[in-house]
Design brief:
InterPro entries: COX5C. This protein is an all-alpha fold. It has a domain at 16-53. The chain has one helix and no strands. It is rod-shaped, with a radius of gyration of 28 Å. The model has no long low-confidence stretch (mean pLDDT 89).
Amino acid sequence: MAGHRVAHATLKGPSVVKELIIGMALGLAAGGLWKMHHWNEQRKTRAFYDLLERGEISVIAAQE
């Protein structure tokens, strides 16, 4: 039995470089999604004001 050794994973501390790379990748992905959301909202707002300016739609204030 002395010749049978089981390879165990050695536990090491956190890799700073790996954590920085993962953090930057997650940050860029989240930032990209947020930016795409804002571009979509900006496009909808611009389309609304274009329709309003051309007179295809109108806004009527609610009377109380």
